[in-house]
Design brief:
Length: 463
């Protein structure tokens, strides 16, 4: 069977303009939700094992928590290509332009490799002073620095796996994309106790387990995208640099990038403020809370991102009524999940914290901190739904703005200002998160309804 015939069969199989819209979204989103949840294991498993180390478990956990914002910033550059290029591929597939879609994917790979090399070098040069800036103390710096020393050696594999996997999912192969993450996470789950406890390598062993697992995931992704099963394949001609395409990819990817970077920025300021007002104990408690947040927000993120290929494909094909139906479905499911997650967080904070560390002192501080942090978590549904709908329809400016608005424009100033109001101190630092959730989430969603809703109505009238 020739290439054109293969493409025709695969295109019909993954044509999102036919069939039930809700079913199409769920078919793509469910494996992505599973993939996002499993992906959390890469870092969560490290922290669980480290937090239960005898003697210095809490300090090791805190050290890795201090290092994590820097890792998130580095990984955010993978989102520049993944969350930028993949939606563009979906739109071009909807328009029937497979050649351009392959060029987008090829140029994304080139940018990823360049960024990976540059960021690894920069990480080794500046990691120690940055870790102190991010809230490390003399007691935790050795753990934070040791973890990064090993992690950076495999950073290029992390970026390739994270940055190219969305191109598998955007073609409709959601289960294959999920397997990418599952394979690496299971390997990490096996290697962590061997390296941390069996060989006694501690934080360095946790980092080594992570990068070896990510290396396997990256190999899986590249093998699939170069293979015969893919609709869009990685080809050398498609990797020829095209500056205009690269700008489009990076512009749309700025939404996912700024979301990750601003989350890290808030975490950096939060850790530094918590170190000032409460010391290592509160930084350790917040490390646990951020770990729990990753678990509860990943299904929300996975679902809204999973809807992107379906919404983008229908938008490119001018099926505006189906896009509107998809937006309603995404909003309803996001709110239902966020409400259920909020209820669990409020009812069982102690049980969740004990998964990471059982020290009574950490538990007492952690329970009240967790409840304050998540008290308005439900409104995160509006943020994720609104922002990912902007991305799926190629509206980079709005997506980027609301990434910045919630965290950089609101979050960081609130962390700095609230502790000084009414002598709130440590509670002012913690209260910044719920304020940004409600203000940022509602602003993003209602702006999306105004901008996107008006455009879709106009498109339906002119159709």
């Amino acid at each position: 069977m020739n290439r054109d015939a293969e493409n025709t069969i695969l295109e019909k199989r993954n044509d999102f303009t036919t069939g039930d819209m809700k079913g199409s979204i769920f078919r793509i989103a469910f494996p992505m939700i599973m993939a996002q949840l499993v992906n959390v294991l890469y870092n969560i498993v490290d922290r669980v094992y480290l937090g239960h180390m005898e003697g210095d478990g809490r300090l090791a956990l805190t050290g890795v928590g201090v290092a994590f914002p820097l890792i998130t910033i580095i990984n955010a550059f993978a989102n520049l290509c993944g969350s930028g290029g993949a939606p563009l591929c979906s739109i071009e597939r909807g328009r029937g332009n497979l050649k351009k879609a392959e060029q987008i994917m090829g140029n994304s790979l080139v940018v990823l490799v360049i960024l990976g090399v540059v960021l690894t070098a920069a990480g080794y040069l500046f990691k120690t002073p940055l870790l102190y800036l991010f809230g490390a103390s003399e007691q935790t710096i050795a753990y934070a620095d040791g973890y990064l020393q090993v992690y950076l050696a495999g950073n290029i594999f992390v970026m390739l796996g994270l940055g190219m996997n969305p191109f598998i999912q955007s073609q409709g192969f959601a289960k294959t994309g999920m397997l990418t993450v599952v394979i690496g996470a299971l390997l990490n789950l096996i290697l962590d106790p061997v390296f941390i406890y069996g060989f006694g390598w501690g934080v360095e062993g946790a980092a080594l387990a992570t990068i070896l697992s990510q290396m396997v995931s990256a190999a899986w992704v590249l093998a699939f995208l170069c293979g015969k099963k893919a609709i869009l394949r990685l080809r050398l001609p498609a990797m020829k640099p095209k500056p205009r395409l690269m700008v489009q990819i990076l512009s749309l990817g700025l939404s996912g990038f700024t979301q990750s970077v601003t989350n890290s920025l808030v975490q950096i300021f939060c850790n530094a403020s918590l170190q000032f007002y409460g010391g290592d104990l509160y930084v350790g408690a917040m490390t646990v809370i951020y770990s729990i947040r990753e678990v509860v927000q990943m299904p929300l993120q996975g679902f809204t991102q999973g809807a992107q290929p379906v919404l983008g494909y229908n938008y490119g094909a001018r099926q505006y009524g189906r896009v509107r139906e998809g937006i309603r479905f995404v909003t309803t499911v996001s709110l239902a999940f966020a409400s259920a997650a909020w209820l669990i967080l409020m009812l069982f904070p102690g049980q969740l914290i004990r998964l990471f560390n059982g020290e009574q002192e950490l538990l007492e501080v952690g329970i009240i901190s967790l409840r304050i942090h998540f008290v308005l978590f439900i409104f995160m549904a509006f943020q994720y739904a609104g922002q990912n709908i902007f991305v799926s329809l190629g509206k980079a400016k709005q997506a980027v703005f609301f990434s910045l608005f919630r965290k950089a424009i609101l979050g960081v100033p609130l962390i700095l200002i609230l502790p000084h109001l009414w002598n709130l101190g440590i509670y002012g630092v913690l209260a910044s998160e719920p304020v940004t959730n409600i203000v940022g989430g509602l602003a993003c969603y209602f702006t999306m309804l105004h901008v996107v809703g008006g455009e879709l109505k106009a498109g339906e009238r002119s159709a």
